[in-house]
Amino acid sequence: MQEKEAIRMKTMDRLKRKPGIRPGMRLNEKNGAGYLTFPAISETGVVSHLMTMRSGGVSEGDLWSMNLSFTRGDRKENVEENFRRAAALLGCGPEDIVCSDQTHTVHIRHVTAADRGKGVIRPKDYQDVDGLITDEPGIALATFYADCVPLLFVDPVRRAVGLSHSGWRGTAQGMGARTAEAMEKAFGSRPEDLLVGIGPSICRDCYEVSEDVAEAFRTLFAGEEFRKLSPGPEQVLFEKGGGKYQLDLWKANEAVLLAAGIRPEHISMTDVCTCCNPDLLFSHRASGGRRGNLGMFVMLLQGKG
Fold first, then answer.
1. Which residues face 242 on adjacent strands?
2. How wide is the angle at C-alpha 114 spanned by C-alphas 110 and 118, nearest 5°?
3. 3-state SS, residue 276
4. Residue 305 above 50 pLDDT?
5. Burial grade of 235 (CB within 10 A; 0-12, 13-18, 19 or more)
């Protein structure tokens, strides 16, 4: 145990960050668990939020240690304990969590109190849901990652939140914009009021893609709303030759959000790549698929007065 703790402390000191990105993310540690937060979103006082790291759980082997997936070969009891620990960091219980059912869609579910515990202590009665939104305090939305992009939405005016899973398919279909639209329809949220965090995922330097993926992003950026926008396609897709490209999912999601009317000063960009930090964060690409899942969580807090 002491050896594992020494390894954990050493790796926490080795978190690799991408230079030149502000405001980045804050590294936190509590009860032996590392987790990441967006300072600009924390400062609103409206939500509790975090993205888990690998440390602080009870899973073993390739799933060490805070694995939050029931479908990666882990013991059910381990995953349940990991959810309990993640919930404690957030300030709730496992019974308050509502999980996505991710299949790379842009489907978004309006979560209510009737959904509490689904995906953790109760079975999910929905499928193909990559985004979750709610305006009910005390419900913890949860989405899961091992290289794809987490998108966190907070409306401090209407007091509503959203979480979306945006891999390359979701990004090319405008998942960020679809989530903002869902919050506007459900809660009256205005894009200019939303604060959005683009969370840890695979970075451009680590993410080589093929021609079919590149074409999906050419199609996305052909839309009128992207014509005069920065970042543009030349900042998102970098041709290497031989039908291979480097794709910047962070910049691509930023472009989608800006095109949806999110203010640039309201977007917090991660500076942490999952693939660059495989000892601290689960990465599908770095591990060759032998990995668990990280979790992004957000919970709307009770209003004052």
1. none
2. 85
3. coil
4. no
5. middle
- Asked whether 194 and 183 are in contact (CB, 8 A), the reply is yes
- Which H/E stretch holds residue 177? helix 175-187
Beta-carbon-side half-sphere exposure of residue 85 (alpha carbons within 13 Å): 28
Query: How far is the C-alpha of 72 from the C-alpha of 184, rounded, in Å?
Result: 35
Q: List, for residues 114-143, the tens digit of each pLDDT value.
A: 999 999 999 999 999 999 999 999 999 999
pTM of the model: 0.95
128, two tokens = 């193909």
134 beta partners? 161
Question: Are 149 and 143 contacting, i.e. CB atoms less than 8 angstroms apart?
Answer: no
Residue 170, SS3? Answer: helix
User: Three-state SS string across 228-239, please?
Assistant: CCCCCHHHCEEE
Residue 36's alpha-carbon distances to 41, 52, 200, 272, in angstroms, are: 12, 7, 9, 9
Contact 45, 290 (CB under 8 A): no
**From CA 62, how far away is CA 285, in angstroms rounded?**
13
Our CA dihedral for 47, 53, 59, 60, rounded to 10 degrees, sits at 180
- Beta-strand relationship, 294-300 and 267-269: unpaired
| Cis peptide, bond prior to residue 231, ω within 30 of zero | yes
Cis peptide before 48 (omega within 30 of 0): no
- Among 35, 295, 46, 23, which Cα is nearest to 161's? 46
Q: Cβ(285)–Cβ(147) under 8 Å? A: yes
The two three-digit tokens of residue 95, written as one number: 């019974």
Closest alpha carbon to 98 in 305, 302, 303, 295: 295
The C-alpha torsion from 283 through 296 and 16 to 248, rounded to 10°, is 70
Mean of pLDDT over the chain: 94
